[in-house]
Amino acid sequence: MPATVVVGTQWGDEGKGRLTDLLAKEMHLVVRYQGGHNAGHTIVVDGERFALQLIPSGVLYGHITPVIGNGVVVDPAVLLAEVDALEEKGIDCSRLRVSGNAHLVMPYHQELDRVTERYLGKNRLGTTRRGIGPAYADKAARVGLRVQDLLDPKIFREKLDVVLKEKNAVLAKVYNRLPLSPEEIARRYLDEYAPRVAPMIADTVGLVHEALAAGHHVLLEGAQATFLDLDHGTYPFVTSSNPVAGGACTGAGLGPRDIDRVIGVAKAYLTRVGSGPFPTELFDERGEALVERGQEHGTNTGRRRRPGWFDAVMMRHAVRLNSLSEIFLTKLDVLDTFDTVKVCVAYEAGGVRYENLPYHQSVLHDARPVYEELPGWNTDLSLATSVSDLPQTARRYVEFIAAQSGVPVRLVSVGPSRGQFVHVGA
Length: 426
What we know:
The strands form 5 sheets. Strands 9-7-5-2-10-1-11-15-19-20 form a 10-stranded mixed beta sheet, with helices on both faces. Strands 14, 16, 17 and 18 form a 4-stranded mixed beta sheet that branches. Strands 3-4 form a two-stranded antiparallel ribbon. The chain is built from 12 helices and 20 strands. It has 426 residues and is α/β, with parallel strands linked by helices. The protein has helices spanning 16-23, 76-88, 107-120, 132-141, 153-173, 182-197, 204-213, 245-252, 285-294, 312-322, 361-366, 392-405; strands at residues 3-8, 29-32, 41-45, 48-52, 65-68, 73-74, 97-99, 103-104, 201-202, 218-221, 259-267, 270-272, 306-308, 310-311, 326-330, 340-349, 352-354, 368-375, 409-413, 421-423.
């Protein structure tokens, strides 16, 4: 049975974990295919909030095997803390499996992330300083340590000694930082983390293919989003991996023909954390209202998100990049109090109109949005359970987004809780 991919279509924080949770009843495996603990999913179940960073959202269901795929970078301290926090709330994490090929986030990655961001000053990228970028850089440079290395202390120490000589030299000579101790790092990872992580380590590629061969449903869950993709995002203000649907293949060990459904998650407006271009960004009281009503602060970092109107130019590009089959539109209720709402349908830059995303970053930085303004609904949507409960103006807004995007909107969320969504399409 083919797999389903859930992908963010904007700059993250769209509500991917929410959709994963909605689809989880049908699933056998939920696989996280890239990113690290720089991304967070928040799910509200019976009034209780679960903030997940590394563990796939499917962990909340007893019948699901949650899988951290080979494309993820794993900080074992964060992973184990998250397991402990979930188990304190009565969530069983014994089914969790972690790819032996996933790379480890090491203390020197975090230190380099912090000092590099400070060194860049006003040109900083706005990273979460969790060591994710440096861990992926080491993966590409073929000097990374992997989760499977925790099972072989000799290999772990040998690899650590080699890489730490270079890292300590950079930290000391470039950033004037004290060297890190290989003995202390080895003790922490091999004595504290390895015994607890070892039972989780598995051949996750085998698990996924066995599930598909048995006719089970597999859900592939990305972190971050399309416009934070290393290749296709607003570079260099991007993440260090590939959140687009194609990244699910390499990050989970699947081929393209193993996937037949790609669901794009989009907010009914737009937000962004960190630096980078944002054509529809709002700096007025309407933007503040979006932040306040949408509780737009990062799950992990607490950073205030930058707000703006929905951008159909970006959405059309996300449809192309991900081969989206449908859209799940979240936080429609946040727009409840607006008299009018806007959708960016094109850009203007240098006297040229762009209805598709310009490839050159200088054009994107100078782009001015061309808006279509639609009437608001000034109605509380939180109790809506069917499309007939939505005001005509709210339905028109959803239909306009679908028409501009070129794919149907199937689901709309009207509140933060698990049951607050409406089916709007077949």
